[in-house]
Amino acid sequence: MSILCAALMLYGFFSGLYLAPADYQQGDGFRIIYIHVPTAFLSLAIYAFIALNSIIFLIWQIKLADILAKESAIIGALYTFIALISGSLWGKPMWGTWWIWDARLTSELILLFLYLGYIGLRSAIPEERRSGKAGAILAIVGMMDIPIIHFSVEWWSTLHQGPTLAKFAKPSIANEMLYPLLAMILAFALFYVVILLFRLRIEILKRNFHTQWLQQWLGPKLRGPE
Amino acid sequence: MNSIQKRRLTFVIILSICSALAFFLVLLALKQNVNLFFTPTQLLQERVKTNQRIRIGGVVKKGSIVRTEGLKIRFVVTDLKAETVVYYTGILPDLFKEGQGVVAQGFLSDHTVFMADEILAKHDENYMPPEVANSLKK
What we know:
The complex is a heterodimer. Chain A is mainly α.
C-alpha cells in the first residue's frame, strides 16, 4: 500500500505540475489546487472519521475505535494546516489578500482549532478511558463544523469560490486537469491510511505493554545481546 | 444492544441534537454578519450608513472599466439587477477583469457610488486550459 501511495503521488505531482495545461485565467498558479484540494477535502473526511469512531467508542466502548480516533487527529490537523497555508499562498496573487474572514476560511480555521483542542485534551488526561471519553464528546460536538465548512460557500456570499468537484453535476474542471487531481486526492488518502496504520501499531503495542503475550514476544528482543 | 449501550446511544443522540441546536442558533444570530459583502441590490434595499466601512461584491460590468490618471480607476459592479459605481486608486489583483467577480472594501458615499480602498478578485470554480477557453469564446 505504501508503494501504491508513492506511485500515485509521483503520478499526481508529475502530471499535475507538468502534463496538465495551465489555467486560462490563473496561468500556472492554479497548480496549487493539487495540494490544496486533497488536503482540504481530507481534513473534513478525517474529522468525520474521528467523530464516527468517537460515537462507536462512546456506545460500544470498543478500544480500537478510540485508538483510531486518537491517532487520526494529528494527521488531520496537519492536513488542515497545509490546506490553510496553501490556500493563503494562492490567495495572495489571485485574490489580492493572504487572509480574509470569509465564512469558508473562518470555519476551516475553527476546524484546525478543533483538531488542536482534541489533541490537547487527549494528552492532558493520562488515563486512557477517561481521555477517550472526553475526546469523543469534544469530537462529536465539533462535528457540526463539517457541514458548515462544506456548505459555507453556498449559504453565504464568500470570497472563496463554489465547489468544483463536490457536487452532483459535471465537475467544472477540464479532464486533463481533473485526473491528476483525483490521483492526488487518492494519494493523500492512502498516505493518511499508511501513517495511521503505523501509528495504530505503535499505540496498540504501547497500551498492551504490560500484557503477558507482549512481554513474551518482546522478551528476547528487549534484553538484547549480552 | 443491551440497556447500557442503549442509554449511551441516547446520550450521544441528545449530545448531537444539543450541539446542532447551539451551532444553529449561533449561525442564526450571525446571519447578517457572515456574509462577506453586500450586493448592489442589497445596498439599495438596506440602510447602510455612508460612513461605515463595508465590502460590496458582484461582477465587473463589461466595458465599464475607465482608467483615469495614474492608478485611478472607475468601474461598475453589477449583480444583474442593480449597479454600483466604484472608485479606486491602487494596484489591482491579477484576476481583476471585466466580467469577473470582484469584492471591494471601502465606504459608500451615495447609494450607488462606492469609494474603495481595497479590491479583491473573486475567482470562479471553473478550471480549463487556455485553448478550451478560447474556443468557447468563438
